[in-house]
Amino acid sequence: GHFEAGRAASPFIAHIHMRARSPETLMAFYLGVLGFRPHIQSRTFGMFDCGTGQRRHMIAFNIWARDELTEPPPGAAGLERYTVVVPSAEDLAAVAQRLDQAHQPSTQTDGALHVADPEGNRLRIVVAGD
To answer: What is the pLDDT of residues 54-95, one digit of tens each?
Structure first.
């Protein structure tokens, strides 16, 4: 992540919650394409989340603001992108292959895979230690 002066240049964030128009579509992408594991999927509560075997609750989506959800104005504060760290180059290659099979556009630069999820949240996927 990138933060202004006074904050860490590469913070570790335990989990993030994002507003969503269609959490079901996002979950299909995060589970089926990126390879996360499901954790909570509550249509009643309007919250879905996923993670890994080590950390079950990492990325969550909720519909609590769905009706008012609009694109932020240019220059507004918000999440620019976040980084997902995978264990190995083989894992990164597997994600790239699944993105290609899903016809999901992505780019690869300096060993990082750049992609946007179906709602436009931008991710940077890198191998641990790089």
So the answer is: 888 889 888 877 677 677 778 888 778 889 999 999 999 999
CA dihedral 81, 85, 117, 76 (to 10 degrees): -10
At 102, list the tokens: 């899903």
CB 58 within 8 A of CB 73: no
pTM for this model (two decimals): 0.80
Task: Count CB-CB contacts under 10 A for residue 114.
Answer: 15
